[in-house]
Amino acid sequence: MLMANLKRTREDILKSVIDTVHRQGLTATGLSELFQVSGASSGSFYNYFRSKHELGHALIDYEWAQLQTNILEPATTQSPDPIAQLFWILDRLEAKQLQDPKCGGCLLGNLVVDLAEQDPAFRNHLIQVFSKWEGAIAQILRQAKPQLQPNTNPDCLAEQLIAAIEGAMLMGKLHRDAARLQRGFATARQSITNALRSSNATSAQASAPQI
After folding, report:
1. What is the pLDDT of residue 102?
2. What is the pLDDT of residues 122-152, one digit of tens each?
3. Is the pTM of this model over 0.85?
4. Which pLDDT score is estimated for 203?
5. Alpha-helix residue ranges (DSSP H) falling in the chain
6. So what's the pLDDT on residue 209?
7. pLDDT score recorded for residue 40
8. CA distance 195 to 182
9. What is the pLDDT at residue 7?
10. pLDDT the model gives residue 165
């Protein structure tokens, strides 16, 4: 019971600070502000995180877990068609960004800009997480192999899709422009359609959301 309570309190701190870190970055957020937004005393905070760096690593893992729980895993229940699953993932990511009037960007992508040059440990951790994300997309694409053009490499296409998604969110954040964000996601969808065999591409275009 004690361990469950400790875990819940740690997760409560992560949940309470994540929006602030997402909005302004970890580097620009001082410890006093972290204590304030988390509602934790310095003693309670340090009971779970020995430093702001340790908090940063915990936030990376937490956000990756949220991406798996809320996006990647539910996608498999939406349709038996892996291509439809990919479009659903794009729809969910885009909708999440559009809920924020300032287009806050991807927390993991923001942390690359914020932390990767500070410490090799952050760079390596973020590389690992993005590799897992690319791997999850590549696995869906491998399941869709019969629908793809013969020369399509699932790993390379997964890299292209993650780059397009992250670019769309980053430019949406920079310009605070929902239309620009939507155009970026439309480009990601088109990358999938372009990789399909002609008969599958026609079906995908018919079912794709209109921007």
Report:
1. 75
2. 999 999 999 999 999 999 999 999 999 999 9
3. yes
4. 58
5. 2-24, 31-38, 42-48, 52-67, 73-78, 82-98, 107-115, 120-143, 154-175, 178-195, 198-207
6. 45
7. 87
8. 20
9. 47
10. 97
Give me 155's structure tokens. 């790993």
186-189, long-range: CB within 8 Å, 24+ apart, which pairs? 186/211, 188/90, 188/161, 188/164, 189/87, 189/90
Residues 6+ apart with CB under 8 A from 105: 22, 97, 169, 170, 172, 173
By the 10 Å C-beta count (0-12 exposed, 13-18 middle, 19+ buried), 137 is classed as buried
Which residues of the chain are modeled with pLDDT < 70? Answer: 1-8, 199-211
Structure tokens at 57: 């690593």
Token pair for residue 53? 């760096």
Q: What angle do CA 77, 78, 79 make, to 5 degrees?
A: 95
Nearest to 153 by CA among 166, 143, 138: 138
Three-state DSSP state, 30:
coil
> Could you give the angle at which helices 2-24 and 52-67 cross, rounded to 10 degrees?
90
- In the 3-class helix/strand/coil scheme, how is 133-186 assigned residue by residue? HHHHHHHHHHHCHHHECCCCCHHHHHHHHHHHHHHHHHHHHHHCCHHHHHHHHH
Give the Cα separation of 132 and 158 in Å (integer): 11
